[in-house]
Amino acid sequence: MILSESHKKFQEKVRDFAQNEVAPLSRELDKEAKFSWELFHRMGELGLLGIPIPKKYGGAGLDTLSYAIAVEEVGRVCGSNGIVLAAHTSLACYPIFLAGSEEQKKKWLVPLARGEKAGAFGLTEPDAGSDAAATKTTAKLVDDKYVINGTKRFITSGYIGEIVPFVATEDPSKRHHGISAFVVEKGTPGFSPGKDEDKLGLRGSYTSELIFEDCVIPKENRLGASGEGFKIFMQTLDGGRISIGALALGIAQGAFDASLKYVREHESLKRSQFIQGLLADMGTYIEAARGLIYDAAVLKDRGLPLTRKAAMAKLYASEIGMWVCSKAVELHGEAGLTNRYPVERFLRDEKLMEIGEGTSEIQRIVIAREILGR
Ligand code: CAA
């Protein structure tokens, strides 16, 4: 897809920020496994933490395509900041935008979209990963308040999340129809994050548990109707998968950029037809992934069904992304395994893209159901 002038201008703005402010820190954040509040706040200042959210709710009022472009540009230099941006926007802001009342939007969406507060999203549990409907966290209505008990796991930005949409079951016998969506705020008694995971990649972002122990939240913290939580979160994931695809694409593009630089600096590699063919394949797959992602973003902006295209975009971008990053490491030879070059970090960061927001196997199930019918 050829970008419009306004999208190109926006891309340049984000690229400028990513290359000049994020890239110089990405190696250190990865090495030290350190999250950067400074970069988070800069993203907020630049209006990047609520790109597709309307201005009246604190966002930039731009479209999903702009958002995908931003995630790609940040991911191109730093997967960790890319996932922070994607999880904050798609998973924390979006379900509130989708299902929140005006009052809830004012209370939670505005500070999230302005970047004044950090968001996270509580879906995954120890026994409910791919099978999201198996949610075990319970929500019991007692005197107009919900009492929440359970544990969420592998939550991006869980450690820092201040406003956290999550799901819990009000009636396990109803399976997904018993699941409701809620919002919990950091500091609520009985709600605490567990320890940060020591991860293979995306080390400059937090991944942690969320623990609910007799945590009492007002009834007004429920998003949407009782029993609607599973659908709200599935719709949220449709959009989230576009951003994970965009991040996979950005990381692959970063690995490709590094490979081109390395080949240009090594005359023998540049002359090798084998290497030329490899670069041609990398570039082609990246362009194809970009097409799918931009298409899915446009479908979302037009309010058209996007489940199939979003799953395809995420599946394809993450799988070719792993291939591109792996070849980028090989192309650098032994040096590719060292942190003198960024490609080993890109390879480690890319792996999550095949797992988070639904594994490749889940995307194939989603696509097949859309193609064949349920
Ligand atoms: N939009 C709207 N509704 C949807 C929907 C969608 N995309 N997908 C399903 N639904 C509805 C169905 O219509 C159905 O509704 P009814 O019963 O009223 O007809 C209901 O939801 C149940 O649908 P299914 O029967 O398809 O549900 P299922 O139990 O078979 O599971 C699944 C479907 C696609 C496998 C789902 O469990 C899933 O997506 N699993 C993966 C979960 C996931 O992606 N987790 C990632 C966590 S977040 C994360 O990783 C963030 C991070 O940190 C990076």
How would you briefly describe this protein structure?
The protein is α+β, with helices and mostly antiparallel strands. Helices cover 53% and strands 14% of the residues.
Task: List the topology elements.
Blueprint lengths: L4 H28 L4 H9 L18 H12 L3 H21 L2 H12 L24 E5 L2 E12 L6 E7 L9 E7 L5 E6 L10 E12 L3 E2 L5 H37 L1 H5 L1 H29 L5 H25 L11 H9 L8 H13 L2
Antiparallel strand pairs: 1-2, 2-6, 3-4, 4-7, 5-6
Helix pairs in contact: 1-3, 3-4, 3-6, 3-8, 4-5, 4-6, 6-8, 6-9, 6-10, 8-9, 9-10, 9-11
Description of the molecule:
The chain has helices at residues 5-32, 37-45, 64-75, 79-99, 102-113, 229-265, 267-271, 273-301, 307-331, 343-351, 360-372; strands at residues 138-142, 145-156, 163-169, 179-185, 191-196, 207-218, 222-223. The chain has 374 residues and is an alpha+beta fold. A hairpin with a 2-residue loop joins strand 1 (138-142) and strand 2 (145-156). The longest helix is centred in the middle third of the chain and has 37 residues, at 229-265. It starts with a helix and ends with a helix. 55% of the residues are buried. The model has no long low-confidence stretch (mean pLDDT 97). The chain binds acetoacetyl-coenzyme A (CAA). Acetoacetyl-coenzyme A (CAA) binds next to helix 4, helix 6 and helix 11.
